[in-house]
Amino acid sequence: MVRKAEKILLYLAAGWNIINSILTIFGYSSWFQSESNDLLESGNNLTYLNASLVDTISKVVMLYGLLTLIIGIITFIIAKTMKPQPNKKIILWILACLLFSFISYDVIAIVFYLSTITIYIARNRALKKKGVEYYGL
Length: 137
Known about the structure:
Blueprint: H1 4-42, H2 48-81, H3 88-104, H4 107-130
Helix pairs in contact: 1-2, 1-4, 3-4
Organism: Streptococcus moroccensis
Protein name: DUF4064 domain-containing protein
Keywords: Membrane, Transmembrane, Transmembrane helix
């Protein structure tokens, strides 16, 4: 049984995560930092504490972008190396990505990962009825 649909959905999810992370790291974090500093300067509230707080929040945004980039790269590798046999590790990875997407409220990634896990588990049940055993774990 070929897992073409799962691979395509995982490639889309990985691509979305990579695009999202690039936009977050290079676009949003620099925009946030410049807009916050401009807002603080216009209100004469630019103190060391406020500037430090803006810098800390900007670093958290960069860490989120980096984590999303790592998730996208790992998902791309998993999609590239996916075998037709059922594998519990892939299910756990997709569930972890789905949980991360729920926590960060990334609706597009939720749709991709939820569709992937639904199709993957449905095909695994069909393969189980045929007598194919799970690999991994």
